[in-house]
Amino acid sequence: NFKLFVRAKAEHDKEKAQSTSMDDLPAQIKSTYNKVVEQLATIDQLLSQRGTRYLLGNAMTEYDCELMPRLHHIRIAGHGLLGFDIPHNLTYLWNYMLTAYRTAAFIESCPADQDIIHHYKEQLNLFKHQRESLQTPTKTHTIPEDV
């Protein structure tokens, strides 16, 4: 659903020649946005019910190795391309992401923010004025202070 949302909002913003706020989106795009937020909320609820560090317990599994990078991509590409932020009230989800950001394997294998954004731009055939490849690579491994 995230890729559907990214594609729909990026195409909408391209037509408008500027980024549209989430509140001003057409109903169809807002529906895909709501589905993304609902899925994130479902993960947050699952994590709150489990009360464990990872999805299935206190040890990382293949499911965590799949979900953690996806959440990070949603965070980086969502904010960088769409002005979308994972809702701060999803505290269990943010704590799960913080666990990823403190895991050596995640830190070592995680691409730079610019690489993530560039990948989505290539997928969407969407290029803005900034050239990520010329920027100093940065890696976001923190969570918002108000979470």
What does this structure look like?
InterPro entries: Glutathione-S-Trfase_C_sf. The chain is mostly helical and 147 residues long. It has a single domain (2-134), classed as Up-down Bundle (Glutathione S-transferase Yfyf (Class Pi), Chain A, domain 2), CATH 1.20.1050.10. 61% of the residues lie in helices and 0% in strands. The protein has 6 helices and no strands. It has helices at 2-16, 27-50, 62-82, 91-101, 104-109, 113-124. Helix 1 (2-16) packs antiparallel against helix 2 (27-50). The longest helix is centred in the first third of the chain and has 24 residues, at 27-50. It starts with a helix and ends in a 23-residue tail after the last helix.
CATH class: Mainly Alpha
Count of structural domains:
1
CATH topology: Glutathione S-transferase Yfyf (Class Pi), Chain A, domain 2
State the end-to-end CA separation.
Answer: 24 Å
- CATH architectural group: Up-down Bundle
Give the proportion of residues in helices.
55-70%
Order of helices and strands: HHHHHH
What structural class results from the helix and strand content?
mainly alpha
Proportion of residues in β-strands? under 5%
**Average pLDDT figure:** 89
Individual helix count: 6
Described by strand count, sense and barrel closure, the largest sheet is: none
- Tell me the Rg in angstroms: 16 Å
Can you count the beta strands?
0
What ranges have pLDDT less than 50 throughout 5 or more consecutive residues?
A: none
Shape label: globular
Features:
single chain, 147 residues, mainly alpha, Glutathione S-transferase Yfyf (Class Pi), Chain A, domain 2, 6 helices, globular, Chloride intracellular channel, chloride channel activity, Glutathione-S-Trfase_C_sf
